[in-house]
Design brief:
- By secondary structure, the protein is an all-alpha fold.
- It has one domain.
- Helices cover 76% and strands 0% of the residues.
- The chain contains ten helices and no strands.
- The longest helix has 41 residues.
- It is globular, with a radius of gyration of 22 Å.
């Protein structure tokens, strides 16, 4: 049966273009949904090593628990062995996070093109993102993995007070991670030195801590998913995270970063880039 064609009630006009970053988020999901769903495939590919390590962890832990039960192992020995097991797999996660952030280099390159209202050649832009920014993103993922491993190591030290064990992870998520994310978007947007990027990332975090923390907690949801005891449920949650959450999160973080740059950096250092990609009533085309 032939499908009936649907038409808009009126012609598209300049006034339909987004004038704010929030409106741009909705506009891109509405008009570039194929590209956004293609980003889901990239996100799933980037998460693949973490998914494989998670699967090996679950299967090996189940085998170890069965052996402990058959050998009537004491609770103290089981706790020690479980701690060693957890730390070993947290160390395996380090290169996996480097690979995940390498995927982010491709995703954020495409998201930046969308945000600036520039043409997107999907696979070419993805490759350019990896080629140009992959080393920086992978190193950032490696550092995040190391910080995460150190937090897990402190948390497994049962002799410490519980607040001391939890504090490093809280500092990593609430302080280190938002500044790291700002550093990556600064690297994508400007050609500045590493010193300026470090200084700017922390300054931006302190100026916009509220929303920055929300985005950091969003990407740290991996830790909450890893606490789900059932492997099939955990695997489904991670796949849904890659397909539904990560593209929206990446676009949202890029647009939020650009709005922060428009307030704090562009009016002084790059006036021509203020509200780049948005429609401004005083001109007839979006700023590119």
């Amino acid at each position: 049966m032939k499908r009936k064609m649907r038409y808009a009630s009126r012609d598209f006009s300049w006034q339909d273009l987004p004038t704010t970053r929030r409106a741009e988020f909705v506009f891109l999901w509405k008009n570039r949904r194929n590209t956004m769903f293609a980003l889901s495939g990239l996100a799933l590919l980037a998460l693949l090593p973490l998914l494989l390590v998670m699967a090996f962890r679950m299967f090996n832990l189940a085998a170890l628990e069965a052996s402990w039960e058959n050998a009537n192992t004491s609770a103290e020995v089981v706790a020690q062995e479980r701690a060693r097991f957890t730390l070993a797999y947290n160390l395996f996660d380090v290169p996996c996070f480097a690979f995940l952030f390498l995927g982010f280099a491709a995703i954020f390159r495409i998201v930046r093109q969308l945000s600036f209202n520039e043409p997107v050649f999907f696979w070419m832009d993805a490759w350019q993102g990896i080629k140009k920014d992959g080393a920086t993103f992978a190193f950032a993922g490696f550092v995040y993995g190391i910080v995460r491993f150190l937090c897990a190591w402190v948390n497994e030290m049962s002799s410490l007070y519980w607040l001391v064990r939890v504090l490093p992870f809280a500092l990593a998520v609430d302080f280190f991670l938002p500044a790291l994310l700002f550093l990556l978007t600064l690297h994508l947007t400007y050609q500045i030195s590493w010193g300026e990027m470090f200084k700017g990332s922390f300054a931006l975090f302190f100026h916009h801590a509220g929303y920055a923390l929300l985005f950091a907690w969003g990407i740290a949801a991996w830790e909450a998913i890893s606490l789900i005891p059932f492997f099939s449920v955990r695997l489904l949650a991670l796949i849904l995270e890659a397909i539904l959450f990560l593209p929206s999160w990446s676009l949202g973080w890029m647009l939020f970063s650009l709005s922060c740059f428009d307030r704090d950096i562009n009016p002084i250092s790059c006036p021509a880039d203020v509200r780049r990609g948005l429609y401004v009533a005083s001109r007839e085309t979006p700023r590119r």
